[in-house]
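question for whoever is on the cluster today: can someone run the full assembly for these? two chains, 231 residues total. i dont have access anymore since they changed the login thing
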Amino acid sequence: AQTVTQSQPEMSVQEAETVTLSCTYDTSESNYYLFWYKQPPSRQMILVIRQEAYKQQNATENRFSVNFQKAAKSFSLKISDSQLGDTAMYFCAFMKHFQNTGNQFYFGTGTSLTVIP
Amino acid sequence: DSGVTQTPKHLITATGQRVTLRCSPRSGDLSVYWYQQSLDQGLQFLIQYYNGEERAKGNILERFSAQQFPDLHSELNLSSLELGDSALYFCASSPSGVNTGELFFGEGSRLTVL
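^ ran it for u. tokens below:
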């Protein structure tokens, strides 16, 4: 079974600074996807960034980037130039496709990030 | 807009009652997932349907049941409600291809049990 661990329940960062959220996962699979989802106070779940395991290049989306270390099974999220709107709960997720059951998703417990003005 | 529609958005009911939450997935998505999120908690996976059939089950109580209909919409039935069932219930859908990923979430149905 796949597990996803987020060891930082809460973090804070000063506005305009950089923060890194950690995520590790455990799997015996070689092909899979990893995601970071953001849940702001509105409670809507928003996809922040996606990484395919077969791609060595780390994914980036504007101020958001990941450090994907496949051998170490680590998938951290770096937020640069933090903004007040980045205040949210961040969930790390693992996805594996199975032929007969579709996509299976596994979520971490989340990291609550507060951006301080 | 994720393309996933959930109704109702808010629901207030009493203990012992039964409610039905409805979800329409994105067009073309065969998989539907249900999650429960209590206040300040993480996402608890309840159940997944794939093209009308149950495919994975999480920590879903026996008082809860779900189904996916031929048009792919899904319903989550919650019965004999208890105070602890108050939560945000998310529906999500996902594409079915091998090289696709991502989970698209609806806005959630907020259930309050009084």
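summary bc i know u wont read the tokens: The CA atoms of residues 2 and 27 of chain A lie 5 Å apart. Chain A touches chain B through 24 residues (CB under 8 Å).
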